[in-house]
Amino acid sequence: MNKFHVLTLFPEMIESGCSTSILGRAKEAGHIGVEAVNIRDFTRDKHKKVDDYPYGGGAGMVMQAEPIYLAYQHIEQKMEKKPRVIYVTPQGKVFHQEMAKELAEEEELVFLCGHYEGVDERVLEEIVTDYVSIGDYVLTGGELPAMVMIDAISRLVPGVLNNGDSAEYESFENGMLEYPQYTRPPEFLGRKVPEVLLSGHHGRIEEWRKEQSYLRTKERRPDLLDKNK
Ligand code: SAM
C-alpha cells in the first residue's frame, strides 16, 4: 500500500477529492491511504493564524514556518524512515509520467500545499526533498497539484486499476500518445468506427493502433518524438 500524507490548510479538499471514483475505491480496498493534516491545528496563535506579512515588504502573505514544521513532525514521528517531502510549487521540476512511476515506488510520501505568496523558505530548507510543479502557470493553492500527483501515482500502484493493461498502453508509456478509442454504437452522427476495429483481426488492429498513435503524436506533440530520437 502507498500512503500519501498531505499538509494543507484545506483538508476537506483533499478528503473529498480523493474519496470518489477510482481513488475512493482504491482507498476502501486498502491499496492506497490518504491522510490530510490540517496545518492550522499546529499553530500556537490564539486566533489560529498561520500566515504573516513578508519581511522586506511586498504584496500578499506568507505561510509561517512553525505550524508547518510541527505538522510535519507530527506525521514524521510515526514513520520508520524519513519520507520524501514534496513541496508543490510553480518553481519546481515539471511533473511527468516517469516521475509518477518513480514516486509510486515510495511507500509513504508527504505533500506540502502552499497558499498566498508561498511558504517561509526556512521550513522548506528544513523538510523538503523535492520541488514539483504541475505546469507553467500559477494556481491559488497546492491542493489541486497534490491531488493531480496523487491521482497519477495511485494509478500505477498494483491493484488500483481493475485491468492492469490499462496503464501499460496509456499515453506516454511508450513515449507516444495513445491511439483514438471508440465504443458502441458503430455509427454516430454519420461518423463510422474505423472498419479495421470491427474486423476482429488482432494483427491489423495492432498495426492500425501503432500507426494512429504515431500520427497523433506527430500532430499534437511532436516534441515527444524528438525526445525519443
Ligand atoms: N508566489 C509564488 C510564486 O511566484 O512562485 C506562487 C504562490 S501560489 C499563488 C500559492 C501556492 O499554490 C504555492 O505555494 C504552491 O503550493 C501552489 N501552486 C501554484 N501554482 C502551482 C503549480 N503550477 N504547480 C504546483 N503548485 C502550485
UniProtKB/TrEMBL annotation:
Keywords assigned by UniProt, alphabetized: Cytoplasm, Methyltransferase, S-adenosyl-L-methionine, Transferase, tRNA processing
EC numbers on record: 2.1.1.228
GO cellular component: cytosol
Organism domain of life: Bacteria
InterPro entries: Alpha/beta_knot_MTases, tRNA_m1G_MeTrfase_C_sf, tRNA_m1G_MeTrfase_TrmD, tRNA_m1G_MTases_N, tRNA_MeTrfase_TRMD/TRM10
Stored SUPFAM superfamilies: alpha/beta knot (SSF75217)
Catalytic activity: guanosine(37) in tRNA + S-adenosyl-L-methionine = N(1)-methylguanosine(37) in tRNA + S-adenosyl-L-homocysteine + H(+)
Residue sites binding S-adenosyl-L-methionine per the record: G114, I134, G135, D136, Y137, V138, L139
Residue ranges occupied by any tRNA methyltransferase TRMD/TRM10-type domain in the UniProt entry: 3-226
Pfam family, one: tRNA_m1G_MT
GO aspect biological process, one term: tRNA N1-guanine methylation
Places the protein is found: Cytoplasm
Annotated HAMAP family: TrmD (MF_00605)
Family: Belongs to the RNA methyltransferase TrmD family.
Subunit structure: Homodimer.
Protein role: Specifically methylates guanosine-37 in various tRNAs.
Protein name according to UniProt: tRNA (guanine-N(1)-)-methyltransferase
UniProt source species: Anaerostipes caccae (strain DSM 14662 / CCUG 47493 / JCM 13470 / NCIMB 13811 / L1-92)
